[in-house]
Amino acid sequence: MGVKKFLSWAVIVCSLGLFEGLSYSNTQDGENFSFPAFPQRGVNYPLNYIESLPKQSLSQEEIKDLLHMREEEKLARDVYLTLYKKWHLPVFRNIARSEQWHMDMVGTLLKKYNLPDPVEETGDRIGVFKDQHLHELYNQLVAKGEKSLIDALQVGATIEDLDIHDLEEALKRTDNRDIQIVYTNLMKGSRNHMRAFVRLLQRFGGSYTPQYISKEEFEKIISTPIERGFITTPGGWRVSSTQYRAVNNFPTVGNRAYPYPVRANTNQILKGKVLKINQEAGIRWKRLLWWVMEIETPEGTYKVYLAPVFRYPQLDISEGDEVEVAVYTPPMWRRLGIENTFMACYVKDLTKGNEYIFRRVCPRF
Protein backbone atom coordinates (compact mmCIF):
# COMPACT_ATOMS: atom_id res chain seq x y z
CA MET A 1 0.00 0.00 0.00
CA GLY A 2 1.40 3.40 -0.98
CA VAL A 3 2.08 6.15 1.56
CA LYS A 4 -0.67 8.47 0.34
CA LYS A 5 -3.20 5.66 0.09
CA PHE A 6 -2.36 4.55 3.64
CA LEU A 7 -2.72 8.08 5.00
CA SER A 8 -6.03 8.50 3.19
CA TRP A 9 -7.33 5.29 4.72
CA ALA A 10 -6.23 6.27 8.23
CA VAL A 11 -7.83 9.71 8.07
CA ILE A 12 -11.11 8.35 6.72
CA VAL A 13 -11.29 5.68 9.40
CA CYS A 14 -10.62 8.18 12.15
CA SER A 15 -13.14 10.63 10.75
CA LEU A 16 -15.95 8.10 10.58
CA GLY A 17 -15.22 6.43 13.90
CA LEU A 18 -14.43 2.96 12.61
CA PHE A 19 -11.40 1.94 14.71
CA GLU A 20 -13.20 -0.15 17.33
CA GLY A 21 -10.04 -1.70 18.72
CA LEU A 22 -8.01 1.42 19.47
CA SER A 23 -7.65 2.72 22.99
CA TYR A 24 -6.22 5.68 24.86
CA SER A 25 -4.88 6.36 28.31
CA ASN A 26 -7.51 6.50 31.05
CA THR A 27 -7.11 10.15 31.89
CA GLN A 28 -9.06 12.57 34.06
CA ASP A 29 -9.27 16.33 33.60
CA GLY A 30 -5.93 17.84 34.52
CA GLU A 31 -3.98 14.59 34.18
CA ASN A 32 -1.15 14.11 31.72
CA PHE A 33 -2.20 12.74 28.36
CA SER A 34 -0.61 10.37 25.89
CA PHE A 35 -1.84 8.26 22.96
CA PRO A 36 -0.33 4.95 21.92
CA ALA A 37 1.55 5.18 18.63
CA PHE A 38 -0.71 6.37 15.84
CA PRO A 39 -0.45 4.20 12.69
CA GLN A 40 0.51 7.25 10.61
CA ARG A 41 3.53 8.01 12.80
CA GLY A 42 5.68 5.34 11.20
CA VAL A 43 5.27 7.07 7.84
CA ASN A 44 5.63 10.73 8.85
CA TYR A 45 5.27 11.86 5.25
CA PRO A 46 3.23 15.00 6.10
CA LEU A 47 5.57 16.08 8.90
CA ASN A 48 8.66 15.49 6.78
CA TYR A 49 7.11 17.43 3.91
CA ILE A 50 6.30 20.38 6.21
CA GLU A 51 9.83 20.39 7.63
CA SER A 52 11.31 20.28 4.13
CA LEU A 53 9.66 23.52 3.03
CA PRO A 54 11.81 26.68 3.35
CA LYS A 55 11.59 28.71 6.55
CA GLN A 56 10.16 32.17 6.05
CA SER A 57 9.99 35.15 8.38
CA LEU A 58 7.02 35.21 10.77
CA SER A 59 4.81 38.17 11.57
CA GLN A 60 3.35 38.66 15.03
CA GLU A 61 -0.07 37.68 13.66
CA GLU A 62 1.32 34.43 12.27
CA ILE A 63 2.96 33.62 15.62
CA LYS A 64 -0.24 34.40 17.52
CA ASP A 65 -2.29 32.22 15.16
CA LEU A 66 0.11 29.28 15.42
CA LEU A 67 0.03 29.32 19.22
CA HIS A 68 -3.75 29.60 19.19
CA MET A 69 -4.25 26.79 16.68
CA ARG A 70 -1.98 24.48 18.69
CA GLU A 71 -4.31 24.85 21.67
CA GLU A 72 -7.52 24.94 19.62
CA GLU A 73 -6.69 21.53 18.18
CA LYS A 74 -6.00 20.40 21.74
CA LEU A 75 -9.41 21.74 22.76
CA ALA A 76 -11.04 19.47 20.18
CA ARG A 77 -9.00 16.45 21.27
CA ASP A 78 -9.69 16.99 24.97
CA VAL A 79 -13.44 17.52 24.55
CA TYR A 80 -13.78 14.41 22.37
CA LEU A 81 -11.83 12.24 24.81
CA THR A 82 -14.00 13.46 27.67
CA LEU A 83 -17.22 12.87 25.74
CA TYR A 84 -16.04 9.41 24.70
CA LYS A 85 -15.66 8.50 28.39
CA LYS A 86 -19.26 9.66 28.91
CA TRP A 87 -20.97 8.11 25.86
CA HIS A 88 -18.53 5.42 24.59
CA LEU A 89 -19.37 6.34 20.99
CA PRO A 90 -16.32 5.42 18.85
CA VAL A 91 -16.50 8.57 16.72
CA PHE A 92 -15.30 10.69 19.68
CA ARG A 93 -12.33 8.46 20.45
CA ASN A 94 -11.26 8.13 16.83
CA ILE A 95 -11.62 11.79 15.88
CA ALA A 96 -9.64 12.62 19.03
CA ARG A 97 -6.79 10.63 17.47
CA SER A 98 -7.08 12.73 14.33
CA GLU A 99 -6.98 15.90 16.47
CA GLN A 100 -3.76 14.62 18.04
CA TRP A 101 -2.34 14.38 14.54
CA HIS A 102 -3.48 17.96 13.91
CA MET A 103 -1.74 19.04 17.10
CA ASP A 104 1.44 17.32 15.92
CA MET A 105 1.35 19.16 12.60
CA VAL A 106 1.13 22.54 14.33
CA GLY A 107 3.70 21.40 16.87
CA THR A 108 6.09 20.64 14.01
CA LEU A 109 5.82 24.27 12.92
CA LEU A 110 6.43 25.53 16.46
CA LYS A 111 9.64 23.49 16.65
CA LYS A 112 10.67 24.51 13.16
CA TYR A 113 10.41 28.20 14.08
CA ASN A 114 11.67 27.79 17.67
CA LEU A 115 8.42 29.07 19.18
CA PRO A 116 7.30 28.28 22.74
CA ASP A 117 4.79 25.44 22.89
CA PRO A 118 1.78 26.23 25.14
CA VAL A 119 0.89 22.53 25.33
CA GLU A 120 4.31 21.64 26.71
CA GLU A 121 4.14 24.57 29.11
CA THR A 122 0.87 23.28 30.61
CA GLY A 123 2.00 19.65 30.65
CA ASP A 124 -0.45 18.43 27.98
CA ARG A 125 -3.13 17.83 30.62
CA ILE A 126 -6.75 17.21 29.68
CA GLY A 127 -8.82 20.39 30.03
CA VAL A 128 -5.84 22.60 30.90
CA PHE A 129 -4.95 25.47 28.56
CA LYS A 130 -2.68 28.48 28.64
CA ASP A 131 -5.40 30.44 26.83
CA GLN A 132 -8.03 31.16 29.49
CA HIS A 133 -10.76 31.58 26.89
CA LEU A 134 -10.14 28.05 25.60
CA HIS A 135 -10.16 26.74 29.17
CA GLU A 136 -13.62 28.27 29.73
CA LEU A 137 -14.82 27.04 26.34
CA TYR A 138 -13.69 23.52 27.19
CA ASN A 139 -15.80 23.55 30.36
CA GLN A 140 -18.83 24.94 28.50
CA LEU A 141 -18.63 22.39 25.70
CA VAL A 142 -18.16 19.44 28.04
CA ALA A 143 -21.10 20.57 30.20
CA LYS A 144 -23.35 20.73 27.14
CA GLY A 145 -22.04 17.49 25.67
CA GLU A 146 -22.72 15.52 28.84
CA LYS A 147 -26.45 16.37 28.77
CA SER A 148 -27.37 13.95 25.99
CA LEU A 149 -25.89 12.12 23.02
CA ILE A 150 -27.50 14.61 20.63
CA ASP A 151 -25.93 17.49 22.58
CA ALA A 152 -22.57 15.72 22.46
CA LEU A 153 -22.70 15.32 18.68
CA GLN A 154 -23.78 18.95 18.33
CA VAL A 155 -20.76 19.93 20.41
CA GLY A 156 -18.58 18.00 17.98
CA ALA A 157 -20.10 19.83 15.02
CA THR A 158 -19.69 23.16 16.84
CA ILE A 159 -15.99 22.55 17.46
CA GLU A 160 -15.37 21.72 13.81
CA ASP A 161 -17.46 24.72 12.73
CA LEU A 162 -15.31 27.02 14.89
CA ASP A 163 -12.10 25.32 13.78
CA ILE A 164 -12.88 25.75 10.08
CA HIS A 165 -13.74 29.42 10.61
CA ASP A 166 -10.59 30.17 12.62
CA LEU A 167 -8.37 28.33 10.15
CA GLU A 168 -9.87 30.22 7.23
CA GLU A 169 -9.18 33.52 8.97
CA ALA A 170 -5.64 32.47 9.95
CA LEU A 171 -4.97 31.37 6.37
CA LYS A 172 -5.73 34.91 5.21
CA ARG A 173 -3.06 36.27 7.56
CA THR A 174 -0.12 34.17 6.39
CA ASP A 175 1.99 33.97 3.25
CA ASN A 176 4.27 31.19 4.56
CA ARG A 177 3.81 28.10 2.43
CA ASP A 178 4.46 25.61 5.23
CA ILE A 179 1.86 27.29 7.45
CA GLN A 180 -0.60 27.42 4.56
CA ILE A 181 -0.15 23.69 3.90
CA VAL A 182 -0.74 22.83 7.57
CA TYR A 183 -3.85 25.01 7.86
CA THR A 184 -5.22 23.62 4.59
CA ASN A 185 -4.88 20.03 5.80
CA LEU A 186 -6.32 20.90 9.20
CA MET A 187 -9.36 22.39 7.47
CA LYS A 188 -9.73 19.27 5.34
CA GLY A 189 -9.73 17.16 8.49
CA SER A 190 -12.27 19.44 10.16
CA ARG A 191 -14.57 19.20 7.14
CA ASN A 192 -14.37 15.41 7.34
CA HIS A 193 -15.11 15.52 11.06
CA MET A 194 -18.06 17.84 10.41
CA ARG A 195 -19.43 15.32 7.90
CA ALA A 196 -19.08 12.50 10.45
CA PHE A 197 -20.82 14.38 13.27
CA VAL A 198 -23.66 15.67 11.08
CA ARG A 199 -24.19 12.20 9.63
CA LEU A 200 -24.53 10.72 13.11
CA LEU A 201 -26.78 13.58 14.22
CA GLN A 202 -29.11 12.83 11.33
CA ARG A 203 -29.02 9.13 12.14
CA PHE A 204 -29.91 9.77 15.79
CA GLY A 205 -32.60 12.33 15.04
CA GLY A 206 -30.70 15.58 15.61
CA SER A 207 -29.51 18.42 13.41
CA TYR A 208 -26.92 21.18 13.39
CA THR A 209 -27.09 24.82 12.30
CA PRO A 210 -23.70 26.46 11.59
CA GLN A 211 -22.69 29.21 14.00
CA TYR A 212 -19.37 30.36 12.53
CA ILE A 213 -19.13 29.42 8.86
CA SER A 214 -21.83 30.37 6.34
CA LYS A 215 -24.84 28.19 5.68
CA GLU A 216 -23.71 27.87 2.05
CA GLU A 217 -20.28 26.57 3.06
CA PHE A 218 -21.84 24.20 5.59
CA GLU A 219 -24.22 22.74 2.99
CA LYS A 220 -21.34 22.31 0.55
CA ILE A 221 -19.36 20.38 3.17
CA ILE A 222 -22.08 17.97 4.25
CA SER A 223 -23.28 17.32 0.70
CA THR A 224 -19.85 16.32 -0.62
CA PRO A 225 -17.85 13.14 0.07
CA ILE A 226 -15.03 12.52 2.50
CA GLU A 227 -11.78 14.17 1.35
CA ARG A 228 -8.77 11.91 1.06
CA GLY A 229 -5.03 12.34 1.07
CA PHE A 230 -2.50 14.95 2.10
CA ILE A 231 -3.01 18.30 0.33
CA THR A 232 0.05 20.15 -0.95
CA THR A 233 -1.84 23.03 -2.59
CA PRO A 234 -2.71 25.84 -0.13
CA GLY A 235 -6.44 26.31 0.26
CA GLY A 236 -7.32 23.27 -1.87
CA TRP A 237 -10.05 20.69 -1.40
CA ARG A 238 -9.73 16.96 -2.03
CA VAL A 239 -13.27 16.10 -3.14
CA SER A 240 -13.69 13.05 -5.36
CA SER A 241 -15.16 13.22 -8.83
CA THR A 242 -18.46 11.64 -7.72
CA GLN A 243 -21.26 13.27 -9.65
CA TYR A 244 -24.32 14.68 -7.87
CA ARG A 245 -27.79 15.33 -9.11
CA ALA A 246 -30.68 17.30 -7.66
CA VAL A 247 -33.73 15.25 -6.73
CA ASN A 248 -36.64 16.57 -8.75
CA ASN A 249 -39.95 15.21 -7.51
CA PHE A 250 -38.88 12.18 -5.53
CA PRO A 251 -38.78 11.70 -2.67
CA THR A 252 -41.12 14.42 -1.44
CA VAL A 253 -42.40 15.61 1.91
CA GLY A 254 -46.01 16.57 1.40
CA ASN A 255 -45.99 18.70 -1.74
CA ARG A 256 -42.40 19.88 -1.27
CA ALA A 257 -39.63 18.28 -3.30
CA TYR A 258 -36.78 16.83 -1.26
CA PRO A 259 -34.17 19.61 -1.65
CA TYR A 260 -30.92 17.81 -0.92
CA PRO A 261 -28.45 16.19 -3.33
CA VAL A 262 -28.14 12.46 -3.86
CA ARG A 263 -25.18 10.78 -5.53
CA ALA A 264 -26.17 10.14 -9.12
CA ASN A 265 -26.81 6.53 -10.16
CA THR A 266 -25.52 5.06 -6.90
CA ASN A 267 -28.61 4.57 -4.73
CA GLN A 268 -29.80 1.00 -4.35
CA ILE A 269 -33.57 0.88 -4.48
CA LEU A 270 -35.57 -1.99 -2.97
CA LYS A 271 -39.21 -2.45 -3.97
CA GLY A 272 -41.40 -5.03 -2.33
CA LYS A 273 -43.80 -6.05 0.44
CA VAL A 274 -43.24 -5.54 4.15
CA LEU A 275 -43.09 -8.91 5.92
CA LYS A 276 -42.40 -7.53 9.39
CA ILE A 277 -41.61 -4.25 11.14
CA ASN A 278 -40.46 -4.17 14.75
CA GLN A 279 -37.93 -2.68 17.16
CA GLU A 280 -34.46 -4.19 17.55
CA ALA A 281 -31.14 -3.27 19.14
CA GLY A 282 -28.62 -1.52 16.89
CA ILE A 283 -25.87 -3.62 15.32
CA ARG A 284 -23.00 -1.60 16.78
CA TRP A 285 -24.64 0.21 19.70
CA LYS A 286 -26.79 -2.33 21.47
CA ARG A 287 -28.41 0.17 23.84
CA LEU A 288 -30.07 2.02 20.97
CA LEU A 289 -33.38 0.65 19.66
CA TRP A 290 -34.09 0.89 15.93
CA TRP A 291 -37.12 0.40 13.75
CA VAL A 292 -36.25 -2.60 11.58
CA MET A 293 -38.21 -3.78 8.56
CA GLU A 294 -38.09 -7.04 6.63
CA ILE A 295 -39.01 -6.58 2.98
CA GLU A 296 -39.71 -9.23 0.38
CA THR A 297 -38.58 -8.30 -3.14
CA PRO A 298 -38.36 -10.25 -6.42
CA GLU A 299 -34.60 -10.57 -5.76
CA GLY A 300 -34.98 -11.90 -2.21
CA THR A 301 -35.82 -10.95 1.37
CA TYR A 302 -33.86 -8.17 3.05
CA LYS A 303 -33.59 -6.57 6.47
CA VAL A 304 -33.54 -2.76 6.59
CA TYR A 305 -32.68 -0.57 9.60
CA LEU A 306 -34.84 2.54 9.29
CA ALA A 307 -34.22 4.95 12.19
CA PRO A 308 -33.76 5.08 15.99
CA VAL A 309 -37.02 4.66 17.90
CA PHE A 310 -36.43 7.83 19.95
CA ARG A 311 -36.36 9.79 16.69
CA TYR A 312 -39.55 8.18 15.34
CA PRO A 313 -41.70 6.90 18.25
CA GLN A 314 -44.29 5.83 15.67
CA LEU A 315 -44.02 4.79 12.02
CA ASP A 316 -47.18 4.28 9.98
CA ILE A 317 -45.84 1.30 8.05
CA SER A 318 -47.62 -2.05 8.36
CA GLU A 319 -47.07 -5.64 7.36
CA GLY A 320 -48.28 -6.19 3.84
CA ASP A 321 -47.61 -2.62 2.68
CA GLU A 322 -45.85 -2.15 -0.65
CA VAL A 323 -42.78 0.06 -0.15
CA GLU A 324 -39.90 1.60 -2.06
CA VAL A 325 -36.70 2.06 -0.04
CA ALA A 326 -33.35 3.69 -0.88
CA VAL A 327 -30.64 1.81 1.05
CA TYR A 328 -26.89 1.46 1.53
CA THR A 329 -24.52 -0.81 3.48
CA PRO A 330 -22.23 0.90 6.06
CA PRO A 331 -18.54 -0.07 5.64
CA MET A 332 -18.33 -1.65 9.10
CA TRP A 333 -21.20 -3.99 8.28
CA ARG A 334 -19.28 -5.23 5.24
CA ARG A 335 -16.23 -5.92 7.39
CA LEU A 336 -18.38 -7.80 9.90
CA GLY A 337 -19.73 -9.97 7.08
CA ILE A 338 -23.34 -8.87 7.57
CA GLU A 339 -25.36 -9.89 4.51
CA ASN A 340 -28.80 -8.96 3.16
CA THR A 341 -29.03 -6.11 5.67
CA PHE A 342 -29.14 -2.41 4.82
CA MET A 343 -29.52 1.08 6.27
CA ALA A 344 -32.40 3.14 4.86
CA CYS A 345 -32.03 6.63 3.41
CA TYR A 346 -35.74 7.09 2.80
CA VAL A 347 -38.94 5.04 2.53
CA LYS A 348 -42.01 5.55 0.38
CA ASP A 349 -45.01 3.53 1.57
CA LEU A 350 -46.78 3.02 -1.76
CA THR A 351 -49.85 1.57 -0.04
CA LYS A 352 -50.51 4.41 2.41
CA GLY A 353 -48.69 7.23 0.60
CA ASN A 354 -46.44 7.98 3.60
CA GLU A 355 -42.86 9.17 3.06
CA TYR A 356 -39.99 9.14 5.54
CA ILE A 357 -36.60 10.77 4.92
CA PHE A 358 -33.87 9.48 7.24
CA ARG A 359 -30.74 10.94 5.61
CA ARG A 360 -29.96 14.07 3.61
CA VAL A 361 -27.44 12.28 1.41
CA CYS A 362 -27.55 8.58 0.62
CA PRO A 363 -23.87 7.54 0.60
CA ARG A 364 -22.16 5.19 -1.82
CA PHE A 365 -20.31 2.36 -0.08
Fold and architecture overview:
- The protein has helices at 3-16, 45-52, 60-87, 90-112, 118-121, 132-145, 149-172, 177-203, 215-222, 331-335, and strands at 244-246, 252-253, 256-257, 261-263, 268-281, 289-297, 300-308, 322-328, 341-349, 355-357.
- The chain has 365 residues and is an alpha+beta fold.
- It has 2 domains: 3-222, Up-down Bundle (Ferritin); 252-357, OB fold (Dihydrolipoamide Acetyltransferase, E2P).
- It has a 5-stranded mixed β-barrel with strand order 5-6-7-9-8. It has a two-stranded antiparallel sheet with strand order 1-4. A two-stranded antiparallel sheet has the order 2-3.
- α1 (3-16) crosses α8 and α2 runs parallel beside α4.
- It is elongated, with a radius of gyration of 22 Å.
- Residues 1-27, 35-43 and 240-266 have low confidence and may be disordered.
How far do the termini sit from each other? Answer: 20 Å
* Coarse shape: elongated
Averaged pLDDT = 81
Into how many domains do the coordinates divide? 2
Unreliably modeled segments: 1-27, 35-43, 240-266
Order of helices and strands: HHHHHHHHHEEEEEEEEHEE
Please give the number of β-strands: 10
CATH class of the largest domain: Mainly Alpha
| Strand line-up in the sheet with most strands | 5-6-7-9-8
CATH architecture name of the largest domain: Up-down Bundle
What structural class do you assign from the helix and strand content?
alpha+beta
**What is the count of DSSP helices, taking H or I runs of 4+ residues?**
10
Strand content: 15-25%
